[in-house]
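Readers of this paper often ask what the protein records in our data store actually look like. This encoding replaces a full spatial description with a residue-level series of whole-number codes. For reference, a complete record is included directly beneath this paragraph.
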Amino acid sequence: MASSSQLAGRVAVVTGGSRGIGAAVASALLALGSDVVICGRSAAALAQACGWPEAAGAGRLETVEADVGDAGQAQRVIDRAVERFGGLDILVNNAGVGRFGEDLAAQSIADWRTVIDTNLNGVFYCCRAAVPALRRRGGGWIINVSSLAGSHPFAGAAAYCASKAAVNALSAALMQEVRHEAIRVSCVAPGSVDTRFSTGPAADTSWKLTADDVAQAVVDLLRHEPRSLPSYLEIRPARPRRK
């Protein structure tokens, strides 16, 4: 097993990195010595991230207010990592939105576009921008945070499920395109995670995964020896709520 030290000095971009899974991934990478750029649409959340214990005073965290569903803004995030830290080694595509509880026939076109623009187009735009930078470094990692919803669709979430299924396919195709250039591409597909991503009635969530659980899976992937490419990883609650 490769050591944590191989992440020290690496440059990572984490989209949607100011809260939830993205924040947990960014914090873990900072703690292991990586230089990290996070982006998000909330200036307040990004400002708060600068006060993380892992980031405070270290000069290794850069924040960019950006919507990765826009190609130009996605490019700007990758460019900022190269400008600030000299290159790019790791891209974690985590930014995502969900619209739950409405049948497809009742869903607005605006909501459909919002989900697809962020969850799918944002991954495409960031990957497209990142691959040339990774090639200049001689390789690296792209990890796309998908969802079990991509392979296990459920009612009331057609746009979300479709976007994650497409991310799975995009990741598999890209993996085959760039693996001979030492660029490894993987999908991490969590089940239910206890974050504020979706809202609903207050209930016991102790059975769910935590954002740190998903971050640990991402870090474990990054520690794999170069000869190893775990291209798709599902992570589920060990004891889900009985239905």
Q: What stands out?
A: The chain has a mean pLDDT of 92. The first strand starts at residue 11 and ends at 15. Residues 109-136 form the longest helix (28 residues).
